[in-house]
Amino acid sequence: MQVFKAFLRVLRSKFGSAIIYIVLFFLVGVLMTKSASDSNVWEKSKMKLVIEDLDDTPESRALTEYISAGNTIIPVFADEDDLTDAMYYTTVDYAVTIPKGFADRLAAGETEGIFECRHIHASYAAANMQMQLEKYVNTVAAYRAMGKTTQEASKAAVAALSKEAEVSVLKKDAEEQKGENDDLLTFFRYMPYIFLSVIMNTLCPALIAMNKKDFRYRTDCSGIHPHSYMLQIFGASAVYVGGIWAVFSLVGSIINGTMYTGRLWLAVVNALLFALFSAVLAIFVSEFAPSDTVVGILTQVSSLSMCFLCGVFIDQSLLGSGVLAAAQFLPAYWYVRVINMLNGELAFDAGEVALALGIQAGFVTVFILLAILVRRARVTSTVVRKSMA
Amino acid sequence: MKPTVVKIDNLVKRYGELVALDHFSLEIKEGEIFGLLGPNGSGKTTTINCLLSLLSYDKGEIEVFGREMTPTSYDIKREIGVIMQNVAVLDELSVWENIDYFCGLYIADKEKRKACVEEAIKFVGLEDFVNFRPKKLSGGLLRRLNIACGIAHKPKLIILDEPTVAVDPQSRNRILEGIQELNREGATVIYTSHYMEEVEQICTRIAIMDKGRKIAEGTKDELKGMIRNTESVSIEILELPDDIREKIAHLPHVYETDYDGAKLTVRCSGGRHNLIRILAVLQEAELGFGRVYSELPTLNDVFLEITGTALRDSME
Fold this sequence. Notes:
Chain A is mainly α and 389 residues long. Helix content of chain A is 68%, strand content 5%.
């Protein structure tokens, strides 16, 4: 276990930079998760209104209160030309004048031509405001018909019209868990980027240190079997990566307040497979003993390109068919597909989830084999180079 | 008769068209400090790599401690310590952790290993630096750490592959003294170098290699006895008439003279008082001369006479 322990010691010395990454990613992860959950709720857009109340009765004040809510109120202009300019420059969307005698006309049951309005022709604001005013007048009329006084009817209309339904984005093929675990699954969605960045930036330098030509040569001279050496390196890498994965899974659960149950465990397994892929990719890259700068570049290129192409940063439904076809050759694509099936963006299919997990496991196996092949070639060439020197 | 520790028989190693080792044979007895001397590319490191079974070879046999050496001879490898030209330690580990790592590749028992590590640290004089990282150590201290990593497990056979390259004279002397001490404690040492002075200083037996072949083997006196040159006399002289040079060339035991316009070199084979006889000729001719040197033959002279090229020239 000497190699195992030494490798963990080397990893420990590289962990300082990993902590910076981890803290940064937790913050970004939380922010992304929160912003993703907020973006599902629609918010009413505000209009810039000028309201001139010439009647100044309880009824006109109730109307002013109603149309002011949720909109921005601009003070009345002294000059008509100033109002026209303000509308031209869209600093005002709509101007309404509540004329004298408004309360009386409302009491008389009038519904047409009560207000004096100025607005840009055929604008969204005009249609919206027109509709609100008509709704108010009609609602007051309806309450009046029910026997209420004009004042009571005005208050009741404002109360009734102020109630708004909360509008959320509905997802297709919604599953029973949809909604409850969206925050956690959004956190999981960004894990490929987190894993690739953290694991490659820490594991690669540690592996490169262990693979330094002279250091390896001396280790190879000792009585340690090469397979035992590789197993201990893989074992220590697995412990490290397992730790990273466990921390992220645990913290993801804590900050989103969600326990892992049912299908959510698939997200955890999915993340484990991707963490393992990140580890074997780091092992493979480090076999070429690149410099720290090259490791940094490779990490950025692999993590960013994989995440953009495979739908980590941009939803797969928004990506072109050509991009998706190419992305199928990358493990992150299959990772995101599992997440999409769990959060209801895609219909859940146990067989397809198993296929996606299997493909990721396949990527892990292939890169392990490639790393072993490169190692063998490098050990031989290193000895030959040293001998010929 | 001491037992044989290393036996290399008729070893051939080719890299494509290049013959790196050409029917190379060697036998090293227990307790020897055996020097492998030769210019760069002469096959020293290839020999070591084949000996350690890190490199396959085309023909020949290698035995270590009387057993055939193969890539899976882990029990034999555990008895060998390797110290290389380049410092091979982990910058991320302390001095103690580095020695403990390499020692642990050979010794599993924790207590025994701890004692070995402590002993190795004491041996190389790194007691005050056990918690230092290698980057904090000077070049000389790093070399000592490198040696400690190779000897901590108390190997019976120690292979040192040019351990003093780019080392200051003070550290070099300390390293050489350390090697001799390890040998006194019972280790057999194989020492490869292209510094003939070092090999002469510490090795009990020497093999000179060139182009993959062993061109001579023996103690330093045996090697020097293989050549005609027993003394080289050099005299700084600005004017040397041809007749006087001819007279010197015909003195007893003189077999070669060389004059470059400023220095006369006279090579003698055997005999005594060669220097006095040469100076007498010059005084008789009333010729003024400057500094006078008399040198005994070196391994470079051995290499020069056998190969026709100076060892130093071959390294360029």
